[in-house]
Amino acid sequence: MKNILKLLTFSILFLVTICSLNAQPGPPAPPDDNPVPITGIEYLIAAGAAFGAKKLYDKKKK
Fold first, then answer.
1. Three-state secondary structure along the chain?
2. Using one digit for the tens of pLDDT, what is the confidence trace for 23-54?
3. 4 falls in which pLDDT band (50, 70, 90)?
4. What is the sign, positive or negative, of the torsion defined by CA atoms of 23, 25, 27, 29?
């Protein structure tokens, strides 16, 4: 009987500990290194605008 009582007490304390550890918040998110991200599409738009401007300049120059 004494062993069962010890096992039951240990099991209850173990479950309470596991549940309380599981309820803790996770680590904070790392700060964003680049606050204004420039993805590949912006580079493509800028390259297209520069290419179009050069074509217009060359056409006007002829």
1. CHHHHHHHHHHHHHHHHHHHHHCCCCCCCCCCCCCCCCCHHHHHHHHHHHHHHHHHHHHHHC
2. 667 788 777 666 666 678 888 999 999 999 99
3. confident
4. positive
Q: How far apart are CA 52 and CA 47, in angstroms?
A: 8
Torsion angles phi and psi, residue 19, rounded to 5: -65, -40
Place of tokens 């790392």: 30
